[in-house]
Write a structure and sequence with these properties.
- Helices cover about 85% and strands about 0% of the residues.
- The chain is built from 27 helices and no strands.
- Helix 8 runs antiparallel to helix 9, helix 11 packs antiparallel against helix 12 and helix 14 runs antiparallel to helix 15.
- The longest helix has about 70 residues.
- The two termini are about 50 Å apart.
Length: about 600
């Protein structure tokens, strides 16, 4: 983590220094936009030390791509591993494997993810890298949790926490606190869950980690949802969504959209719920987040069930079940089986309802999910009753009642626990706000002292600097707004095809450009390099020329020449966003095929 500090200068600033500071401030304002290109420059500079180049590549794989373009993250992590291995630098070999394991986990390939993570763990142990051990143990815990093995997950989280605390890694400690809280909440130990969530949030606020604050906000929302306090749950879910969208962490965006949809569903606002679940599905598909895709499909199925459309519910939930089985997510499998059983009961297909509920009950018992056991028991008691098997129906009814009563007892304790939690949360936030107020006061005082010392020398340049600032700011805003608008339009064009085919399994094949249609429309033939460059831009409209050259094995001047040729073919006028306009035109031409399928 980079730290900044303030320093009061007693020297007189020269004109050159003033202008230099101003230019630097403008450059820093757009640092995020050029960060990727800067990192690529470091990686490609063979005169720099190997460690500097590896650190840049590590940031590209993890910071830039893991939660936005997982496949790109996997690719760069492999480049990182190969180079680190050739130089025998274990810490970066472990980091590369950890990144690839995380990508595989996001894609729902849990067995493969575990293999990569265990290799990373072995290397971190050999070189006694405590930071690496902390990260890898945490990630293995997440995989274990997704596979429904919460005891093993808790063991790994505990090991992760041990190493994070040993090296005083507050960020890692906070994330592990959140994960431990999730396990306890799943087991119904709300007091412990609240304790870990509040400790995680406090640290994230202390170090200013926005992504961590988003995750903690989501977890706190879960507490209020359990309580039935939907307005407060929505408040925290929307807070999480806002931060996740700002940070570009699409996995967290998908999760937030799902949770908001569930609240609207619980309030009977099915149209709103369906909108949020559909947006969650689109986001999950965009990053190939199979866990989120399965969850969104099942939630859409539940909405159709609640709207008395069991056929559609069965369609969506069956697709969700298939995906959960593919990735080995036991919790998701039980969830889909229960939903399918409800729809089969509504259709009058009681034999199938019994079949699916029985499977759900077995899995729910295996992973210790009280809520899913209760749902399965309720479905079975209704189905057995209709089939005339009254003994089995009575057994399931008794199981349902016993679990309901035990949950009611827990609910009676929740109000007291959550009231205490809210008081502690408010106190922590108040203390944090007060500290921020003190820091801001000190900062403003220091600024006034510094300003009074150099006021005379700076006064002559104020008007010039203001006009320069306005000029650059307006130009940056205009370009940024145009770029953001184009990115959104491209995204909508891509999603258009996915939504229209959301009921089949061919959506992946639609996220490509149609070469035949494009060449026919532009009345020109694209060579292999042209097509590779256009496809790279389609996958990531904000990609830089250096990245494109790296991906398609072409020189940067070659990339520029190809782009200029395609601008002519597609009749793209000169603009600061020519590449995005090119992607838009190509996407529109290809999109014509969606309506024909």
């Amino acid at each position: 983590m980079n730290h900044s500090h303030r320093q009061t200068s007693r020297s007189v600033l020269s004109i050159t220094t003033v202008i230099f500071i101003f230019i630097v401030s403008i450059r820093d304002a757009s640092a995020q936009q050029v960060n990727l290109d800067s990192l690529m420059e470091v990686w490609n500079d063979e005169t720099l030390p190997d460690t500097s180049r590896l650190q840049a590549l590590e940031k590209i794989a993890w910071d830039v791509y893991v939660y936005t373009q997982p496949d790109s993250a996997y690719y760069y992590a492999q480049v990182l591993y190969d180079f680190a291995e050739s130089k025998e630098i274990g810490i970066h070999m472990s980091s590369a494997l950890h990144t690839q394991g995380t990508v595989l986990r996001i894609k729902g390939e849990y067995k493969e993810a575990n293999e990569y993570l265990l290799r990373a763990l072995e290397i971190s142990k050999e070189i006694e890298d405590k930071r690496g051990l902390s990260k890898v143990y945490n990630s293995i815990g997440i995989v274990s949790e997704f596979l429904g093995d919460f005891d093993k997950a808790l063991d790994y989280y505990t090991l992760s926490l041990k190493f994070s605390e040993e090296i005083e890694n507050k960020r890692g400690t906070a994330y592990t606190f959140s994960n431990i809280g999730i396990v306890y909440q799943y087991r119904g130990d709300l007091a412990k869950a609240i304790d870990y969530y509040s400790r995680a949030l406090k640290i994230h606020e202390e170090i200013g980690n926005q992504n961590g604050i988003a995750i903690s906000s989501n977890n706190i929302g879960l507490i209020y949802e359990d309580m039935g306090d939907y307005p407060k749950a929505l408040h925290y879910y929307h807070r999480c969504l806002e931060i996740a969208e700002e940070q570009g962490t699409l996995q967290e965006v998908a999760t937030s959209l799902t949770n908001i949809g569930i609240i609207y569903e619980a309030q009977g606002e099915y149209a709103k719920a369906l909108d949020y679940h559909t947006r969650s599905l689109e986001t999950s598909l965009e990053i190939d987040y199979k866990y989120g895709t399965a969850s969104a499909l099942n939630n859409i199925g539940i909405i159709h069930h609640l709207q008395n459309n069991p056929a559609k519910a069965i369609d969506y939930c069956s697709r969700s079940l298939k995906l959960s089985q593919e990735i080995g997510n036991k919790d998701g499998i039980a969830y889909s089986l229960n939903t399918l059983a409800m729809s089969y009961n509504r259709q009058g297909n009681y034999a199938k309802a019994v079949e699916h509920s029985t499977r759900a009950l077995d899995i729910a018992n295996d992973i210790g999910s009280i809520l899913k056991i209760r749902t399965a028991a309720r479905n079975l008691y209704k189905a057995y009753q209709q089939l005339g098997n009254y003994r089995a129906s009575l057994e399931m009814h008794e199981l349902f009642i016993s679990i309901r009563d035990s949950l009611d007892n827990i609910d009676g304790q929740k109000a007291v626990i959550t009231e205490e939690f809210e008081r502690q949360l408010f106190a922590d936030s108040l203390a944090f706000a007060k500290q921020k107020e003190v820091d801001e006061l000190e900062y403003q005082t220091a600024l006034k002292e510094e300003a009074s010392q150099r006021f005379v020398m700076l006064a002559a340049f104020v008007v010039i600097l203001i006009f320069i600032g306005i000029y650059f700011r307006l130009r940056t805003i205009k370009r940024g707004a145009e770029k953001e608008t184009l990115l959104q339009e491209i995204k909508l064009l891509k999603i258009e095809g996915v939504i229209k085919t959301a009921s089949n399994d061919e959506w992946k094949e639609l996220l490509v450009l149609d070469k035949e249609k494009i060449e026919k429309a532009i009345e020109n033939t694209l060579n292999i390099s042209d097509w590779s460059i256009l496809q790279a831009l389609f996958n990531n409209p904000a990609i830089g020329n250096v990245q494109i050259a790296d991906q398609v094995a072409l020189s940067v001047p070659g990339v520029r020449s190809s782009l200029q040729k395609m601008y002519r073919f597609f009749k793209i006028d000169k603009s600061s966003n020519q590449r995005m306009l090119l992607v838009m035109e190509a996407t529109k031409i290809s999109n014509n095929s969606f309506s024909e399928k």
